[in-house]
Amino acid sequence: MHDRAGQTARPEDLIDLDALLGAYEGVRPDMTDPMQRVAFGTSGHRGSSLDGAFNEPHILAIAQAVAEYRATQGVDGPLFLGRDTHGLSEPAFRTTLEVLIANGVEVLIDARDGFTPTPAVSHAILTYNRTNARKADGILITPSHNPPRDGGIKYNPPSGGPAGGEATSAIAARANQLIEGGLTEVRRVPFAQAHATAGRFDYLSAYIDDLPSVLDLDAIQNVGVRIGADPLGGAAVAYWGEIATRHRLNLTVVNDAVDPRWAFMPLDADGKIRMDCSSPCAMAGLIGMMKGGASYDVAFGNDADADRHGIVTPDAGLMNPNHFLAAAIAYLFANRPGWGADVAVGKTLVSSSMIDRVVAGMGRRLLEVPVGFKHFVPGLLDGSVGFGGEESAGAAFLRHDGTVWTTDKDGLLLCLLAAEIQARTGSSASQLYAGLTDQYGAPVYARVDAPANRTQKARLAALSPSDITATTLAGQPITDILTQAPGNGEAIGGLKVVTADAWFAARPSGTEDVYKIYAESFLGPDHLATVQAEAKAVVATALAG
């Protein structure tokens, strides 16, 4: 823990915006360095211009690759293009638009020339595709909750959610080929021409005016739930005030500042500025406001592209994301009569097993998938999955009638759900979760890192159940060893070991020489510590073998 974690940033913590923007145009990536090549993770290509990892050549190449890819897939409708408030998002937006227009792509940008949350783009794609034969897709310029020095770009195909591995691999490979070829195949027009040619779309109205189809906003308004909303300087900054006005909610935007340096943000646990609404350090301002006597029944925050949620209640402070997911699932499946009895609950393998117990108690089917929201897209799209959630505070769920709302994470939606829970039950989401622990037990959950070199990480990602020789974990028989997700059979890129009251999952980091150990126990903190220690031993033995 950094000694100033949770304290407002000082001038020396802030990025040099001029240097960041200068590097975007002035630095050319070294393609012999793997960290400077185009690489799509679970949420697109990310990096900093200062590291040669997110520069104009990357965006020129990615935009050209997307234009070519969508053509090969027969996607001939409009492309919805949005951006968040990161410093690198504006120049990347301009570059992307210049290339797409030059390639004859019909691009729709924000009619208000404002910032666009990720869920608003997903919603726009799906709404268009519901009634048009030509299919639309989208691009988001955002590194999500990453520090101010970073940039990011991700592609959403006509399914509306994050692109799958087949698409991102093809786009990345072609983008790297274009850069290595000196970008000679990239088409581009001046920004003024591109901006004048692009179509306009009112993302804000399309999203906000449709919210009653997925939430009980009348209950929130009738009860007068007192709400505090903090967009953390992100793309939701213009949305919360309009949500309050259009739906007559007692909602106060506690901070409407936008600063690409995020000078107003408290430092995260490691001393970096990070717009992580699931971090108590990054959310220290809103938590302090609630502890200081702010008269809100519920408060919440979002990350920079508003695809994540952070829920703050008077009785619990910032809710652990796993706790809110469990509470949300319990509430929704008891209060959405339009959802069929066969509609499943989706969770990632590293999310809390409290969800498993809640789902079993409801008699519902659990869909357990690898890390990455893209794995929920098919089920949300066809209505067979009512709720999909990740332990990192990202989730989405169906409309009242059981049809798709978004197929990307929607932080605005989950925040408003916390207000609906308060209105409809008279209790906070944290009080609802406390009731679940009375019924199912109180798990303890943590994530730690362990060192691993590149060879060891590759070995971890390729393990099979037969590589695990242990038969017990922390005093209990091992009941399952997974290297593929039971929900869809996809490789999890590591392993998960399960007992009756505990589990751990180990996955290699994509950016550091470590692997991540997620672990949980229903038998208390001491048992969790034993699980974590034995997990390292189990993994070490497997890697040595």
From TrEMBL:
<dbReference type="GO" id="GO:0005829">
    <property type="term" value="C:cytosol"/>
</dbReference>
<dbReference type="InterPro" id="IPR036900">
    <property type="entry name" value="A-D-PHexomutase_C_sf"/>
</dbReference>
<keyword id="KW-0479">Metal-binding</keyword>
<keyword id="KW-0413">Isomerase</keyword>
<dbReference type="GO" id="GO:0004614">
    <property type="term" value="F:phosphoglucomutase activity"/>
</dbReference>
<dbReference type="Pfam" id="PF02879">
    <property type="entry name" value="PGM_PMM_II"/>
</dbReference>
<dbReference type="Pfam" id="PF00408">
    <property type="entry name" value="PGM_PMM_IV"/>
</dbReference>
<feature type="domain" description="Alpha-D-phosphohexomutase alpha/beta/alpha">
    <location>
        <begin position="206"/>
        <end position="314"/>
    </location>
</feature>
<dbReference type="InterPro" id="IPR005846">
    <property type="entry name" value="A-D-PHexomutase_a/b/a-III"/>
</dbReference>
<dbReference type="InterPro" id="IPR005843">
    <property type="entry name" value="A-D-PHexomutase_C"/>
</dbReference>
<dbReference type="InterPro" id="IPR016066">
    <property type="entry name" value="A-D-PHexomutase_CS"/>
</dbReference>
<dbReference type="InterPro" id="IPR045244">
    <property type="entry name" value="PGM"/>
</dbReference>
<dbReference type="InterPro" id="IPR005852">
    <property type="entry name" value="PGM_a-D-Glc-sp"/>
</dbReference>
<feature type="domain" description="Alpha-D-phosphohexomutase alpha/beta/alpha">
    <location>
        <begin position="320"/>
        <end position="440"/>
    </location>
</feature>
<keyword id="KW-0460">Magnesium</keyword>
<feature type="domain" description="Alpha-D-phosphohexomutase C-terminal">
    <location>
        <begin position="491"/>
        <end position="535"/>
    </location>
</feature>
<dbReference type="GO" id="GO:0000287">
    <property type="term" value="F:magnesium ion binding"/>
</dbReference>
<dbReference type="Pfam" id="PF02878">
    <property type="entry name" value="PGM_PMM_I"/>
</dbReference>
<feature type="domain" description="Alpha-D-phosphohexomutase alpha/beta/alpha">
    <location>
        <begin position="38"/>
        <end position="177"/>
    </location>
</feature>
<keyword id="KW-0597">Phosphoprotein</keyword>
<protein>
    <recommendedName>
        <fullName>Phosphoglucomutase</fullName>
        <ecNumber>5.4.2.2</ecNumber>
    </recommendedName>
</protein>
<dbReference type="GO" id="GO:0005975">
    <property type="term" value="P:carbohydrate metabolic process"/>
</dbReference>
<dbReference type="InterPro" id="IPR005844">
    <property type="entry name" value="A-D-PHexomutase_a/b/a-I"/>
</dbReference>
<dbReference type="Pfam" id="PF02880">
    <property type="entry name" value="PGM_PMM_III"/>
</dbReference>
<dbReference type="InterPro" id="IPR016055">
    <property type="entry name" value="A-D-PHexomutase_a/b/a-I/II/III"/>
</dbReference>
<comment type="similarity">
    <text>Belongs to the phosphohexose mutase family.</text>
</comment>
<dbReference type="InterPro" id="IPR005845">
    <property type="entry name" value="A-D-PHexomutase_a/b/a-II"/>
</dbReference>
